[in-house]
Amino acid sequence: MSLATRHASWSVGGRQVVHDVTLDVTPGTTLGLLGPNGSGKSSLLRLLAGVRKPASGRVLLDGADLHGMRRRDVARRIAVVEQHAQTELDLTVSDVVKLGRIPHRSTWAAEDSDDRAAVAEALARVELTDLADRSWHTLSGGERQRVHIARALAQAPQELLLDEPTNHLDVHHQLDLLGLVRRLPVTSVVALHDLNLAAMFCDQLVVLSAGAVVAIGAPSEVLTPDLIAEVYRVHAVVTPDGPGGVPAVRFLPGAA
Predict the structure, then answer these.
(1) pLDDT-based confidence at 108, cuts 50/70/90?
(2) Please, what's the b/e burial string for 112-146 (b: 16 or more CB within 10 A of its CB; e: otherwise)?
């Protein structure tokens, strides 16, 4: 077992944002979180990361309650790539990636050979070694997302959580980025808006509506015209065996 939830719920301002969610993330796979705006995807990711504690229910890591673990231990296992990660500091690409080593160093300790090796390996994995000395502020949107994934990889995590990593990227960079995530030797949970990208790159999908799970399964099981009409309130045609053997979704004009 990797990450899991058992009847997890979380509320804010009296409104239940995540409601009674139970799921298991299979180690080594990519799980996609789907749902319209306000469905609870980002909040569920924060529960899985241990950033928020469920009001009821549990979040588990290898069967142990996540909130009974030390924060440093959790940070060594779980890395998070936020949707809008920015910095006003004039950092180089290498400086940003080095931030991922903080959970592995004692307070005020200088970086050592292990840190340098982890940073170099992370940069190589996202193919940004040549940009290590470039200023963060000179990078394109796709390059910045790659840097944040490198920073997460420098943590040496076993679980990687990504919140809308393809937002504001063109099609080329969307495919490139999710292909990279899919190839990583980690367990990944990715919140996505695009149903076709989810079908292409995720082993399993969890569909949320109003904070509750309405479907869990393989893309071919989950992405049906009826579910899309119910959750997204749009009509769609789903080709079960689209390009590459995955479902292909085509939206039709008009609300469902």
Answers:
(1) low
(2) eeebeebbeebbebbebeebbeeebeebeebbbbb
